[in-house]
Design goal:
- The protein starts with 9 loop residues before the first strand and ends with a strand.
- The chain has a ten-stranded mixed β-sheet, sandwiched between helices.
- Helices cover 40% and strands 21% of the residues.
Amino acid sequence: MTSHRTGSHDIVVGVDPERDWHLALAWAADEAQRRRLLLRLVLAVPPQHDTHHVDDTPGQTALRQAGADRLGQACNWVRDRQPEVSVTGDLLGGFPAPVLGGAAREARMIVLGSRRLGRTAEFFSAGSLVVPVTAQARCPVVVVGDAEHISQQPPYVVAGIDGGASATAALALAFDEADLRGAALRVVCVWQPPLIMLDDEEVALRAQRTLLSEATAGLSEKYPDVHVTHEVLTGHPVEELARAAEHALSVVVGRRGTGGYTGMRIGSVVHGLLHRAHCPVITVPTG
């Protein structure tokens, strides 16, 4: 097991020492192979006491040894699955969320498993990673709570857009993912009818279709092999996007938002998808 400084050519994946890590690690290893990137596995060992300094007690030493063993197993598993991928492992002291958030600062992408916690538990669980890391990372974050649906033919990726800057970045990554996978791309916009309609509904839907066409025009030229469909759905964004992605390889959305607990600004749609979607969820920051 070796260590190195995180770089822009890394995919970072968090390894949970207490729970099964195979789904997230399989996704990350396969993505590293497709993109010809390095794979960096990170396992955080928190202090046994309520401190932020290194704890050298026998109990902490045992935790670090167990973590090192687990990390070594994970590295070997990656090498067996994707022999051409260069993989390293880092055992770091500290609480998992800030450790992984720091590791993601210069990474190309970070991959996390999901424990399928409810919203309240996800916010307040001491071991929760998904919300704080997703909110703070400057790179795309992939949350793997369910396996990608590789048996679906033809395979497809879903991109959820709303016309904002975060949607532009998400759409670019979605095209890239679909191209790498030889998959189709379903670009979805969900329209929620207002309580009071100022315009005719068909006018509003036509505006959404125009938005989709304009958003994808340049990317369709850049990725001519990607078969793209535009879909305007009506309803709640989380429910409709989750339904559209039910058999997808992944669903890609932009992340943004204001407020939230302790600066966890990921937006209500992203937060909902992280708990509702039954495929990997890829969130892309604005800019």
